[in-house]
Structures are given as structure tokens and as C-alpha cells.
């Protein structure tokens, strides 16, 4: 006999230990300060923007799409592992209580997304529809919580279906219905929203009837889905700390390799310069993260009106990029044969410091171009001079000490 409650406690404890282990690295003091500054500045300019909100701004569609997405995206975390396909499959009918707790956990854990999006969109909704008031918006959030349950149960029943096309069609139909419901609710059209809600209930009941026709759970599908979500979490965590569970992929990117790496001189003291550059370009982690930080930073600089906040954002994203790229130093630490290289340790340190300096200066150059397009010569000078000075000081006074 399998004690489903005890098995859940054990599996849940393992899961929380694993995730909390990486979360403490993700939300470290450096990222915390940066996020606090970014969110504070974003909230300030969001409030300023709402004061001059255009009358034709598509608030209804934003509310409908956002609420429709958070209700439709309702995955169920089962915390299953590959060995469970062998050892738990025979006891499937003894695990009813385990899977019920999985549903409870999945729902509770996703509530924070509803609260965050609701809090973020609330001021926009009140500015666009002041006549409907806070009570109407709170009632919409209540509807979100209810429809979220229906979608999660429907998704759980559809996990018995092995045909991916049928699962995709089910998701598309429910997404359209979810968005339509909140499109009408955002306007206060409760009658039309009720009609569409009846259609959604019909789809949910239909998925339940389909699941009743299936003999048992698709265990391989449950394990695959859970592993996909953990891989996503590991990829995010890998931006901040080395994750041994994550299998890194390597991409050719021949054009970038020829443009950057092939220019490295073929000399002994350039060994690690070649290694770090080709790792940065071809690894699945660094280049993508570097580009994303540049894009997010560029958007923040472009849309913020205050000059000094623009410059502060430029320095902030230079700091974030350099801080994340520092993990290049430890990327190859588990490869023993690198220790056989007849190269000096100071060459290795010099190579990583030079490369970090180069990518920070390149990012500074790109941020400065934004001020040229906006014809802001003072901002251009401040970012290019300030970014260059910050890059040098950060590399020499922080990164260099961390390597020793």
C-alpha cells in the first residue's frame, strides 16, 4: 500500500528544498537592489503616464488578454520523476489523494501571478473606467479566481489525452472563451459575459467526459510536462548560478565566431581569451542573456523622459550584464583537462577581465546610440563617459577581487 499523504509530504519537501536552494541565488542582494530601483522608477513613470492616458487607449483588450492568459495558463505540477514511471505506475489508483494535493498546490502557487497582474492593471483600469469603480474590478478578480479553477481542472483532465493536436485545440478554444469573457466584463457587460461563461462550462464538462473514457493517466506525459517546467526554472537559475542539472546546449553561430573569435591571435597567452569568447558566443546561456539585458535596458532608456534616470538605467543594466557574465569564470571549472594547459593563471584572469571590459564598453556604445536617435548630446556624453568609467572601476575594483 502507498501512503499518498506521506509520499506527497516527502516529494513536496524535496521540491521546496531544490527550488529554494536556487531562489536564494536568484534574489541575492545585488539583484534585489537593481530590481528595487527598476520597479520604483517604473512605478513612478507608470503613474505619470496614466495622468495623460489617451482616450482611445485599448485598456479593455489589455485587461482581456492579461486576465484571459492567467486563467488559461493553469499547469498542474505533479512533482513526478522518471523512476515513477516504473515504481508508481502499478499503484496509480492509490494516489488519488496525492494528485488532489498536487492540484491544490498548483492553484495556490499560481495565485501570486493573479495578484501581481491585478495590482499592476488596477490603476490603468480605474483611469480608463472611473465610473465602474473598485467594486467592479474586485468582482472581476473574483471571476478570475473561479475560472482559474475550471481551467486547471480541465487541463488536468486533458492530460489523459495523448494526441497533442486535441490538447492544443482545447487550449485555443478555452483561451478564446477566457479572453471574450473578460472583454465583456471589463465593459460591465455581465449578460454577454454570462453567455460566454456558459460556453466555457460546456467545454470544461466536455473535457471531463473525454477523461472518463480514458483508462488511466498518461504517466509519461505527466513526467515530461513536469520536467519541462523544471528545465525552465533551471535555465532562469543558471543565469545567476551554475546548475548541474541543466544540460547546456551549444550552437554553431558561425558568423559571430568568424567575426570575433577568429580574430584572436594564435598564441599561448591568448588561450583563455579564445576559450571565453567562443564560450560566450556558442553557449546557450550567455549571449541570449546579454542581448535580453541590452534590449530591456534600451527600452527603459528610450521611454523614460528624465535625463538622469536614463543615465541611471544605462549604468544599472551595465552592472547587471557584467554581474551575470562573471559566471564565465567558472563555466569550465569541472573540466579537468583545462588544468593541463601550459598557461599562467594571470593569463586566464587577464582574458576574462578583458572580455568583460569589452562587452561592457560595447553595451555602453549601444546605449549611447539611443541618445543620438533622440538627439540628446548631453545624455550621449554622460552615458559614454559615465558608462566607460563605471565599466573600468567595476572590473578593476569588484570583478578582479572576486577572481582571486
UniProtKB/TrEMBL annotation:
Any one of the GO CC terms: membrane
Coiled-coil zones: none
Regions crossing the membrane: 25-46, 58-76, 104-125, 137-156, 168-185, 191-208, 286-305, 311-330, 351-372, 378-395
Any Pfam family the entry gives: EcsB
Keywords, sorted A to Z: Membrane, Transmembrane, Transmembrane helix
InterPro entries in UniProt: EcsB_ABC
Protein name per the record: ABC transporter permease
UniProt organism field: Halobacillus faecis
